[in-house]
Records
---
Amino acid sequence: MSVNVSKRTFDAVIVGAGGAGLRAALQLSEAGLKTAVLSKVFPTRSHTVAAQGGVAASLGNSTEDHWHWHMYDTVKGSDWLGDQDAIEFMVRKANEVVIELEHYGMPFDRTDNGKIYQRPFGGHSMNYGKAPVMRSCAAADRTGHAMLHALYQRNVRANTQFFVEWMALDLLRDAGGNVLGVIALELETGEVSIFHTRATVFATGGAGRIFYSSTNAFTNTGDGLGMAARAGIPLEDLEFWQFHPTGVAGAGVLITEGVRGEGGMLRNADGERFMERYAPNLKDLASRDVVSRSMVTEINEGRGCGPDKDHVMLDITHLSPEVIMKRLPGIREISIRFAGVDPIKAPIPVVPTAHYQMGGIPTNYKGQVVAPKGDNPNTPVPGFYAAGECACASVHGANRLGTNSLLDLLVFGKSAGESVVEDFKTGNLALHPLPADAADQALARLARLESQREGNAVADVRLAMQRTMQKHAGVFRFNDLLKEGVTRILEVAESAKATYIKDKSKVWNTARQEALELDNQIEVAKAAMISAEARKESRGAHVRDDAPNTDEHPNGRDDQNWLKHTLWFSADNHLEYKPVNLKPMSDDVEPIALAKRTY
Amino acid sequence: MEANRGRARWRCRRSLLELDLVLARFLETGFEHLDDEQVADFEDLLRCDDYDLWAMINGGKACETGRWQEIVARLRQC
């Protein structure tokens, strides 16, 4: 594709217009910075919309609460891999960002006396695990949707300049490592443009689509992670992925825990209610990770259902049709549409399904991207910031608590924005000159796709990647499968270098889009597989068969050797490690001491 | 007109996986048979809020815009 590269100059560019991007953009626009926000899709179609549960804040409106308790829950949820300075920062900022959102017009549910109503949520407790707490602020079951609309309207008011249906292709850096902006493609015109800036903020969301079974929307292709990795920035803790036990097999659409709450039972190919063996007390209502691993064990031991024995069944046929129609109408609809079965008559095929990415682009609690330099593993990369699911602050560590993801994007979106404004005011953000070859990498990627006359179909390579990730780095991990997985994913990565698209058209070329996105997904998949193979313990969402629960290593966790963050580097696939910050940000709270994670 | 079809294809990218899946099936099966006027109507439908669109497709909400009804009926079959 022969292209002329235009250039636009802004104070800052934000890539991604979900919750984190919009929150960061607001901070910049209201401070008067000339800000461009790039988004592949219209902002209100970002995946933040799908978040239903709520946003955590220790407002104490519905029950007594304290940020100390929220901090404890988050550290424990993270299986002690979360950085305690960032976690303290997040939970202390929670009330402020939620109340701000209320002032932006977010229609939170209310108590009788008009305060924000709060509901309980798994993993959140009062008094350090003593009892459930009501901490989740929600707008019915549309919290993410309402949040995104409120933030978008506020940005319109603040004159944020949106570049909608633009895809960022690569991060621009100079020889000194300064980040200079991004190069991006407008889908409507095929125009390629450099966004030359003092500050670049990535808020591109997660990459859950690297797995075959994923709850994520198609747009979640890890673009920010891919761009960062290609630009020499390491990716942190990408072995940690949260799986939801009951996604519809082959589709990924979530079947909520509420179905099992209503009496739904998981069955294997023999029709056995197998959870009775794994969790005799809680059975099908055991915690997500226990249920997911039990399901995978059934499948791995040959008791899976279907011709490929690759799923189990969620059975509600014993419930009366009236109960199903009344209490679970949406689930019935989803099952009929995506599994082809009416759950009144037949069980629903389900598999553990990738849901959330705990790792990402390494940042500090200020939203500054950090990377090793000299003796400091957390040296800020000049001009580069990140927030939301694409970033790793790290507040979720090895496992995220529900309702902490919306909090993450509000707090760190704002924090990244504040850092840009602060760095701008103090003169720390220069507009460094663009090197002559700034656009070369992205143009070479486009040129390859243009000139490639034969090769591998994008859909085939993507499927190979997804199958490999699901089989070799799924919810329950095995040493031999991980080792094979590394070999296999590197083979898939090679095949991705020769993707071929038939359609060479310049505008609205979705085939080209998918090829470019696949490049980003492959970076994340390599990081995830290689990081997972290397971590020889079980912690949070990373559970290995060869690191079982013992007295010496409760839950298989090995703090002596593995209480550290992984950093994966794309250039040569090598790993480095950096310490977990066990020290809170302030002296207002004691560090949360290491303990076995039990509920 | 090809550009309009490409644009409509891209705008099938949504915030909800449920919609992505249904619209992807439609792109594979029904989309090519739409005439230009129907493509324009389809694009117009895609301007809807995602939860409203999903409610129309899963039957939770009636489609009250006459020129969308045929396409919504087809999407319901996907």
Note: Chain A has a mean pLDDT of 95.
---
Amino acid sequence: MSKSIAYSRSQLTWLVILRVLIGWYFLYEGLTKIMATNWSSYAYLRDSKGVFAPFFTMLTDHPFVMDVVNAINMYGLTAIGLCLILGCFVRYANIGAIGLLTLYYLSHPPLIDVHYLIRPEGSYMWVDKNLIMLCAIVVLMLFPTSKEIGIDRFIYRKKLSGN
Amino acid sequence: MSGKEELNQPDKEQTKPELPSSNGRREALKTLATIPVLGAMAYGVYQKKKTEHNNKLAGSIFNFEASPTVMDRQPDGKTIRLGIIGFGIRGSQLMQALGFATPAYIDNLKEQAKKDTQNTRYKDFLEQENLNVEINGVCDIFDVYAKEAAMAGANVNKEGTNGKFDKLPVIYKHYKDLLAAKDIDAVIIATPDHWHGTMVIDAVNAGKHVYAEKPLTWTVPETYLVADAVRKSGKVFQLGHQGRQIEINHRAKEIIQKGLIGKVTLVEVSTNRNDPNGAWVYPIHPEATPSNIDWKQFEGNPERIKEYMDYMTSVGAAKYVGPDARDKFSLERFFRWRCWWDYSTGLSGDLLTHEYDVMNHMLDLGIPASATSSGGVYYFKDGRTVPDVLQTTFEFPDRDMSLLYTATLASQYNRPRKIMGTDATIELGSTLNVTIDRASQRYKDKIEKGVIKPGEPFYRYASGKSIDALSSATEMYFAERGLLFSYVEGKRYNTTFLHIREWLECIRQDKKPSCGIDQAFEEAMAAHMGTRAYLEGRTMYWDAEKQVITRG
């Protein structure tokens, strides 16, 4: 992973744009949850379907667990969004994002003949936008840009000079 | 490492060395290049907050202080000793609300919970608040039901078959023996309609507090007797209209009283069902025989029967009597008694009363000035005499308003209750919606300023939470299915449980329940007017001075 890739200007530009847009998406999702009064993932989790549904609904039985889950969503999404936009600690933000997206995908898998109370705005079978975004983040991990454009450039330099 | 650095630098930088300061600026630029994006986000969020704030200002018109509908419980209240009269479908539900169920019912709940981990009915039942009552006597004229009622009464630990049970309550063959029991303070009456009035009178005269299922009475003359007896006795009486406990109804009442929907001229309520059970074609118990059913007691109180027959024959409604002779044993008539006027009050007594009471609660209607009905047996042509489609219009000239009730037992299209005012309309389904009227004078300014969009739901309320115009469609979607807020509120309550709980607390604290004898009398007279209008095919009027139903 320590090997850096030489990007062309347009490659770098579009990779950064992709990173910032995904960051934007996460940040706004997080902010709306923080700003909403009494936001809770309760209803979303209750609506879980598929093999893992019992696990996700089980979470809603415990108020304390719900508080933790809600906090992870509100502040996790916000922090990940900030990191991706600013290009700081992007590696960890990516790991967090992949974790959350995996949970979203598993709790609401787009299975055949499964209906959710929140209807998706499109039509999906097995593949949905969560899965695609998850893949996009994996791609961003393999083609990192924050050490080029982003605060990681500074953090990274500092660490180097420290050595 | 430096080689890698070079790799990452664009070619230009390698060929054209620059001044250190310029390089530093370039470094800073690359490090901080994406920060302006946050500015854009901040601007967007600011704009959104601003519009939300405006919406909130509009929503604040409908701001209320939360009013708890659950009555405070008296600490160390005494145990109330109960007797249960009637353990059919409703009787068993009422006992469940009290916290008592048959072992078979518990087995079933356990089975459901095993099959579906999301089914929490068993857990909910176990966790249901203990109402501090004991069942000392039960009475049902069908022996199988009487035994089941006793088993439920003994099932204090809420156990399934093979569980540990308390001592069985006494099984009384006749309700009058139950009423004579010294170890019973209060009774719950869930018998067929033709017995309600007589039993309430006998119960209060025997010094028992009473919770009776609706409707209050079967005949008009007995309605006066019941009201007198209950008032004179000073006993705590509650009629089983659990709609009084629905939280959104209390909020709707508040909205109406504050004049927020303007002058109400029309109210629409309805009943829609579409299955045999909903049309009273209940299952016939396989063990039922003439030997384990006390048919004589089922027939009814001779005085009531005389009142009924006198009325039916005097107004030319004899065709609605029978068709079977009253003394002829019939399993169909025993289990599906709601289908015949001989025992029933039809749609009027069974379902219109619920709707009427809800509106009486919200609008303090009292007894209507007139009632007109129409309908017929249009779908369940199974020999029943009561209609399965019914329309009743009540007029309230003093209030300048009409109440329209429409019902069919052959379509379960869901229609919310509608209260139409000059400034806004309230729709009551599982949630409360207020839609501002385009022609409203009260909200004219706000409509012109664009703060209120007329014709669109403006204010919504569900289970203890106000939802203003900014709430998401998703949130509403969940709320309407009762999924939302259970977690926030902690627990979801069954309205029947709350209604019984209120009655018990009123007994302990010597207070008046929400659906006491005054409300019950109004409910009964309104329903009787609707029934008579149907049976006689003409409008019925209420003479408020003489307190009698007239034909104008």
Note: Chain A touches chain B at residues 3-4, 6, 9, 16, 20, 23-24, 27-28, 31, 35, 38, 40, 42-43, 46-47, 54, 57-58, 60, 63, 66, 82, 85-87, 117-118, 147-151, 153-154, 160 (CB under 8 Å).
---
Amino acid sequence: MRQQLTEYILNQPKKVFILVLVLTVVTAAMIPMIKIDTDPENMLPANQAERLFHNKIKTQFNLHDMIVVGAVNRTAQGIFNPQSLQALLEIADQVEAIEGVIDYDLMALSSVDNIKQGGPGEIEFEWLMKQAPNDQAAADYLATQVARLPLLNNTLVSADHQATSIYVPIADKNESHRIATEIQTIIDHVNSADEYHITGLPVAEDTFGYQMFVQMGISAPLAGLMIFILMWYFFRNFKFIAAPMVVAMVTVITVMGTMIGMGYTVHIMSSMIAIFLMPIAVVDSIHIMSEFVERYDIHAERKQVIRDVINELFKPMLFTSITSTIGFFSLLLTPIPPVQVFGAFVGAGILLAFVLTLLFIPAYLVVLKPESLSSLQNIHHSKSKLSTVIKSIGGFSLSNNKAVIAAFLVVFAVSIWGITQIKINDNPVRWFKADHPIRMADKVLNEHFAGTYDAYLVLESDADAVQQSFAKKLATQTLWHRQFELIEQQENGFKEQLNEMLFWAEDQLFDADAQQAEQLEQLINEIDAVNARLALFKSPTSLAYVEQLQAALQQSGLVGKSNSLADVVKTVNRELHGGDAEDFILPDSAAGVAQTLLQYQSSHRPHDLWHFVDQDYATTVIWVQLTSGDNQDMTAVVEYMDQYISGNPPSAGVEINWAGKTFLNKVWQEEMVKGMGMSLISAFAAVFIMMVVLFRSVLLGFLAMLPLTLTIVFIYGLIGWLGKDYDMPIAVLSALTLGLSVDFAIHFIQRAKDLFAENRDFKLTMRLMFEEPAAAISKNAIVIAIGFTPLLFAPLVPYISVGFFLATIMAVSAVVTLMLLPAMFKLLSRWTLR
Amino acid sequence: MNRTKRTANRRFKLFTAATILALAALVQAQSLMADITAAQIIKQANLASFYAGEDGRSDARMIIVDNKDNKQMRQFVILRKDLEEGGDQNFLVVFSRPSDVKDTVFLVHKKVAADDDRWLYLPALDLEKRISASDNRTSFVGSDFYYEDVSGRNPEADSHQLLKQDDTLYYLKSTPKLAGSVEFAYYTMQIDKRSFLPLLIEYFDDSDTPIRRVEVVEVTEVQGHPTVLKSKVSNLKTGGYTLLEFRRPAYDLGMDDSVFTVRALRNPPKNWLSAK
């Protein structure tokens, strides 16, 4: 059937061209629908439990996406001076007016309340800094005031007094680039000697999206150009090498167009699809064309040459394509949607490239004018300079086979040791280069403040249990029960239902006789008791537990600071009692807490309370500020707290969970490491089985796996040795390495088998192997390795590491294939080639 | 066709009659009140809103609703005694719900010429405390009402302008004399001509965007005084609002001055707290 297809193509090349053209046009038409997605949250599936919980908490407690503006004054005086504060006030006021900024939740010295002692025995709530201080004394006084407010100290103003920040909540994070730009304009127009930084996750994400476009717009075409130049170097014939370029372009356009057309967003991983497919797509073409050049001369019957070439290469090409595809498809086992999309489309792209190569290259070669091909006669790979080097490598490996094997064993051992040194870690801010303004802002602000990375420790009491026990009580009284059923139809929340029931009972009380009144009082008491049980986080014991958790967080050594409802209560309580430090304690009853909070709510910003606790006081949030967004640090905090909590459990029915983006990053990283292990193992097994089937020999199958095993071990050993974090792009590399580096082994072993079958002479086979086959393998390795190098010039770190390591992988696996395989073949010659 | 014409004719007659009536009413209204000034309207409105009777009491219930429909409840009794009509007056606010703030008390000596005096009693902490009242535009116990909405904003703080009037309403615009002392740039009021109660107050920021709205939802007559039974304050920025419902209002109860002393904080006058 394959031969019939080849015949058809050779006779009807135009139909192939039309088919390819239509495919390209249709898919290209979908590319303008592109949607960029830079939200690290999307590393987790939309229905992931931790993500759902995070978003629930985010909504419930109005934890908006924040742009962080930091002002730093490094003089001895610090930020507390009239000029700096005046500038800050002007900037904050103007930022508040920007459209899309949630002004009532904006946090700056000028927009928050102070609670302090007024006149003798008087408590005063006032704006902390309605106007900027007129003189230094007033500025110093302001500093003492901030130091008394634990919620602000080291959050709004750094402990060293050199920096202050404005937290700018925004309604839609897709607007963050515009808003950040407007903030920058405002800063530029305000007269201030202080250095200003703008950062925050939404800004980072937006900037990242922009740079992803840059990368796709520059790196991918650049990769195309590199491949073109290389091929020109190998074949020196523009018309001839146009064919693989067409295959590469059509593959990239079709895959990207289909992906976008299917509604997938372009995430950091999928933005690399083009640059991955480009070099891989030309590999098969290069094999065909090398072989074609080797066999072609002006007198040969061209169709026959093509037929012969395809016949010879079909099997290894099919198998290499399938193994590469398996490598990428194995990423589907990693439960990270962007990685899955990437794996699926690159895998499909490789199969498409294989099909396109078989369709288009023969059709193209057959229509090419004879004079276009005339120059090819002078090129024979087996005579090139590259080939000379390779032959000497082959000769060396064969003559010193034991030493070569021993050397590889040493490398293997050293690499294994390197792997044990690997640090699993990622941090989306580190995706920017060290000199990027966002990285700089991040560094500066975390130096001064107690941390700009937020995570939330959430304590939830079991409201359902309270509700059920109340329902049981009600069931004893028909009238109450009926009334409550009526209320349940109108009100949604249990707390509101209770309130309505209470209102009803109190209204009834007005016209009740003595006996009814007694019953109603009983009901009212019952409702009060239920309310008290619901409002667990008004109780001093629960708040004391929150305090304990905060102390533990601090002891973990990785948390800069934490804020909680307990801090709010203690601060207000202290000021109510006269402002002495010894009164910075929790009141001794729930009513005391409630009455303290009633005062807190009598401020300019009563809604601030709901960032810490819900209206039912059944759920409370501890804000945790980390100075590092590294997943390993977040992991350490989580583990430390798990241990603490298991030793000091909360009261019955209270559940403790984490939320916050820093925590989510940790979650997807763990999923990824686990998933990648699965991907790697299953791809390894699948490829091994394929190899055994292909070569009909367990030994050859084992040999085919050697180069890739050694390459993977070496690469990860290298990462361990270099001290580079095992992050998302690095994790993805394992599957790629597997799929790509087995290619060389397949070609090597298959060709060696074929040659040996012809001449039945091991030495001759090996000599012939280092003629055309080894040259084609090295050429492919070089094309792919060089093809990825434009990634080194990308503006974002993940691209750079992928570029660097892929080039290394290609080089290493080619070297391993060309050195280790002949050495092993010789060692095992009695069994390998028979 | 004939019928349509007849109907149209009748409509025209009705319309003409209505117009004539309306015009007549307008002419009459204008001739009666042509010379009323903004200052007079404001004075009347202030009296109607905050000085009905010599003293008064009411049960009050607040439902504070945020933009996600979360609700909080406050229930209290509010007592008032005027020292001078349109001048200084005293307020006592005693909380009954939520039960954990029961018997929390606010005492306010409102002064027209100076800062108010304010005291607070928190029973659970057994704590009496003076509260600085330098800023009256802070939240009243976490609601969207400000202290000033409860006790009344000094009419002298703003300059008032009568924009227009129609059959039922005066339309005023008021601008604070001390710009920057408050969170708004100006506010507009629609004052009912009959009762002189402001039915709608809207606060605007510098860019003429409404940021806050105070509405009267229900009015009734109590002992001859038009009395607000339900009002609503909306924070147009946060999307939250607060409903305030008054129940069992009564005037001229003959309250004693001792009801409004600091001593009353710990022992609020039981006889005025529950409605008779």
Note: The mean pLDDT of chain A is 87.
